[in-house]
Give the backbone structure.
Amino acid sequence: MSILEIKNLNLGFNIDEKFYPVLKNINFNLKCGKIHAIVGESGSGKTISCMSILKLLPDNTKITSGQILYKNVNLLELNEKAIRNFRGREIALIPQDPMTSLNPLYTIFDQLYEVVLLHYKISKKEAKELIVSTLKKVNISNPEQRLNNYPHQLSGGMKQRIIIACALLGKAKIIIADEPTTALDVTIQAQIMHLLLKLKNENNVSIILITHDLALVSQYSDEISVMYNGQIVEHANTGEIFYSPKHPYTKALIESVPSYTNNRKIEPIYGNVPSIYDEINGCPFHLRCKYMFAPCKTINPNLKKVDNHIVRCHLYSNLDY
Ligand SMILES: Nc1ncnc2c1ncn2[C@@H]1O[C@H](COP(=O)(O)OP(=O)(O)OP(=O)(O)O)[C@@H](O)[C@H]1O
Ligand SMILES: [Mg+2]
């Protein structure tokens, strides 16, 4: 069963009175209690896709079509006041930079107490006990001492854990984790991922995991959507993606990671992701694609169902050229 559905989302930015498309026909389904990863190179639109769920978008954003359905509500139609009832409560965000969601002027206790006040009718003493026990759950050592710390006194991994504690206290149903571990060393990365996995397994939280790190998604995610230039170019279960990638971009991403090449040569993907300012004809990946043929230069392929994958590539079109 889906808990969140993005349907045909199209949006772009107005820059100097011109409209630049950024997300093109995004369809995305988050199943209840599952981890759905979004992967893709820098600039492919991962963060903007997730920010659109909570309507935390730049002022110059124009949504041209689409729906984001959560509990039969189209989040895109909510005004600022109404969407605030969902942010951090129903749907929590662990952002790329944890400082953007922690207030540098408040102690850890103050930040967490604010969440408790919204959700529980308990005394301040009980709130403190609840906060301390939640900090223990997210593996913060000496939680009593940490309560009086300000965010800048904590390490990156600790800040991420405080944000996860906020989500736990707020009883979030969905966590959007935007590169939650990029700035952390590998051992702390693993701890944060285990914590997210625990939330999924014990609290039935559904998670959108955004990352560049294919090793991470292979280990933790249930499904994967691969993004390129503001489009989802492939979607399938994690096992399917790694066992039998269909889109040349997905294949290239996997071939660029040492551990998946089975001692074959690592092949970097040449060239860059196009920017929103580039006008592209045909498939946006065609200039970098090993399998490019004539139609790729002129026609952007539609999504096709291939085995258990959804793929946007002419290799799988039944068109007669
Ligand atoms: N406020 C903005 N104004 C103009 N362009 C923007 C703005 N924010 C993002 N973009 C552009 O939108 C595109 C998608 O950006 P987004 O941040 O979603 O990428 P991303 O996939 O999250 O990348 P990364 O992996 O680097 O975080 C990029 O081309 C980016 O340059
Ligand atoms: Mg991003």
